[in-house]
Design a protein that fits this description.
Elements lengths: L6 H8 L4 E5 L2 H10 L6 E5 L11 E7 L5 H4 L5 H10 L2 E10 L6 H4 L11
Parallel strand pairs: 1-2, 3-4
């Protein structure tokens, strides 16, 4: 969900998974489709994820860098929870959801602390 330009979509497809990538941005959806054009097991849809509707049920859903923007695209009081509940309807009863949240502030780039690297000679 929110496949962007499709790097994870491509990886999952190369691993043999049947993948439906949903991306609301037309340009990114086109890039993802082009990136995965040789994989018959990958389909890309350009659609608003919150309103995406389908009849399929999935073994799993993956979203990376999507949930933290739920409030930007929805005026609902608890947009992240509502978004997750919307996604749940697409899962099989024993399905899974993987959700990764990116660091919106990029604090690691502003940090002046350098990690200590030990030498293993």
């Amino acid at each position: 969900m929110g496949c962007g330009a499709g790097p994870i979509t491509r990886f999952l497809g190369e691993c043999g998974a049947f993948v439906y990538g949903v991306e609301p941005n037309l340009q990114r959806a086109r890039i993802a489709a082009e990136r995965c054009r040789d994989l018959e097991n990958v389909k890309i849809f350009c659609d608003d994820i919150e309103h995406f509707d389908g009849e399929d049920f999935f073994d799993g859903l993956v979203q990376v860098g999507v949930l933290e923007y739920a409030t930007k695209y929805s005026s609902e009081e608890d947009a992240p929870l509502n978004f997750l509940q919307h996604l749940k309807q697409f899962l099989k009863p024993d399905g899974f959801l993987i959700s990764a949240i990116e660091n919106q502030l990029g604090l690691k780039y502003f940090s002046t602390i350098k990690p200590k690297i030990d030498s293993y000679e």
